[in-house]
Amino acid sequence: MYQPEYEAMPRLELEALQLERLRAVLHRVNDHNEFYRTAFANAGLSPDIASLADLKHFPFTVKDDLRAGYPYNFFSAPMHDIVRVHSSSGTTGQITVVGYTSNDIDNWADLMARTLASAGATADDIVQVTYGYGLFTGGLGAHYGSERLGAVTIPISGGNTKRQVQVLADFGTTILACTPSYAILIAETAQEMGIDPKTLPLRAGVFGAEPWSENMRKQIEELLDIKAIDIYGLSEILGPGVAAECDQQHGLHVNEDHFIIEIVDPETLQPVPDGEMGEVVFTTITKEGIPVIRYRTRDISRIIPGECACGRTSRRMERITGRSDDMIIVRGVNVFPSQIEQVLTGIEGVAPHYQVVLGKKGAMDTVEVHVEVAADTNFDEIRALERLQATVRNEIQSALAVSIAVKLVEPKSIERSQGKAKRVIDLRADQGGM
Ligand code: DLL
Question: Can you tell me which atom of ligand 1 is nearest the CA of 131?
Fold first, then answer.
């Protein structure tokens, strides 16, 4: 552990700390942020809450609230105190800008040092930061964490996959930080370059920024012969460093001394009991630049009840199933791309590269899973291909209780991503009707 005094704090002490910090942040936003001041006044809410349970009376914050303040109006610190801005990618609309004070950057470095330490990293490691540097929080977030830990930091950023492999081999990288889909591409590229990725000095990876399945983890661990740790975060809350798995690889410990997690029913918005699935909601309790109260992430997960064998006392969130924006409804059944991935990555003969394609036939919505066959497939064996296609369809049907059309596609025909993979392709507008 990097900060055992916080990571393994007795629960009662942690809750007392959370309450103190929550009160302070409610005061901060009430004093500096017009949106919260108005919302609290309208609801008759005072920042001087009596207990943590009072948080549930406070209004939610959604992405559009942050957008309405574009670029700086949602900040709760004077611009004089802001030392850095980042922004969300804007794939789902106008970008949002987040601001950090020097205290925020300092806390972030600690939280990312925790994240790397939970993957077993120490000052003796060499960390290759392959997350993108720039407005995206991944690169600089991991960079500061790695330096805080005292590790050697390689600020290579994303892209140029052959060079990534060369650096992995020549610089003796021991910890890789990138998206899980890019980790697969790096491993495949190494194989193409005649380098067996298992022989690299790499021993662990901190992978996140996109949903990935347990089977995908197994594939990465096997391909690279490493331990693959799931790390989670979002720019509106911090960037990476909000939650991370420990060596038990069973749920992501939320850094509860900085963030309060709630899981709510996305329909009723009522908190659900531990163990039940719902939308993840975060309140930042130490942020100064842009604190947020009850931020609806759109990510779907649940709290894993019980204690973790690693000794951390923080609660664990299960790996994110997906974003509610990416959820597909097929004949009444809710399906996330990561569930399809879990099935595909368990089948021999297909590669871990896939897309879910939404289309339109007349007035009907259609869904088709495109999945690459393995590189060594013999295309002359039509029967074998037909059998493989039927296997994929049947496996999806039995795992998800819904039948989805499957198209096998040639190796390397699905576009590779060097950052977040695009799993859902929506062609409905192009095919008329929308
Ligand atoms: O992706 C921050 C990050 C960088 C996290 C590097 C981990 C590693 P955004 O670009 O704002 O920030 O995207 C945040 O990505 O709401 C989730 O939907 C998704 N996401 C992030 N981590 C995971 C994960 C960064 N481990 C959005 N599993 C979040 C599943 C994840 N989804």
Answer: 6
Length of the chain: 434
Write down the residue that tokens 């991991």 correspond to.
Answer: 142
CA 424–ligand 1 middle distance (angstroms):
16
End-to-end Cα spacing for the chain: 51
Answer yes or no: is the C-beta of 241 below 6 A from any ligand 1 atom: no
> Which class would CATH give 328-426?
alpha beta
User: Mean of the pLDDT values across residues 114-124?
Assistant: 98
What is the average pLDDT across 396-425? Answer: 94
**1-325 carries CATH number 3.40.50.12780:** yes
- The minimum-distance atom of ligand 1 relative to the CA of 298 is 16
The DSSP symbol for 44 reads T
Indicate whether residue 234 lines ligand 1 (CB < 6 A): yes
Q: What are the DSSP E strand ranges found in 56-189?
A: 82-87, 97-101, 126-129, 152-154, 175-178
* Average pLDDT of the chain, as a whole number: 96
Q: How far is the CA of 96 from the centre of ligand 1 (A)?
A: 15
> Could you give the CA distance from residue 426 to residue 208 in angstroms, rounded to a whole number?
23
Q: How far is CA 126 from CA 143, 149, 153, 268, 393, in A?
A: 11, 11, 6, 47, 43
Please choose from 299, 318, 423 the residue to mutate so as to test ligand 1's pocket, defined by most ligand atoms within 8 A of CB: 299
Q: What share of the chain is helix, strand, coil (3-state, %, to 5)?
A: 35, 25, 40
**pTM, entire model:** 0.96
DSSP element (H, E) containing 263:
strand 259-264
pLDDT of 434 strictly over 50: no
Band (432; pLDDT cuts 50, 70, 90): low
Per-domain boundaries in the chain: 1-325, 328-426
**Cα–Cα distance for residue pair 108/104, rounded to 1 Å:** 6
Any ligand 1 atom below 6 A from CB of 235: yes
208-244 pLDDT, tens per residue? 999 999 999 999 999 999 999 999 999 999 999 999 9
Q: What is the pLDDT of residues 357-367, one digit of tens each?
A: 999 998 888 99
Task: Provide long-range contacts, Cβ within 8 A and 24+ apart, for 85-90.
Answer: 85/135, 86/135, 86/136, 86/137, 86/140, 86/235, 86/239, 87/135, 87/235, 88/234, 88/235, 88/236, 89/136, 89/420
Confidence of residue 341 (pLDDT cuts 50, 70, 90): very high
What is the whole-number distance in angstroms between the Cα of residue 209 and the centre of ligand 1? 3
Instruction: Residue 418: name the closest of 137, 185, 127 by CA.
Output: 185
How far, in Å, CA of 17 to CA of 211, rounded? 31
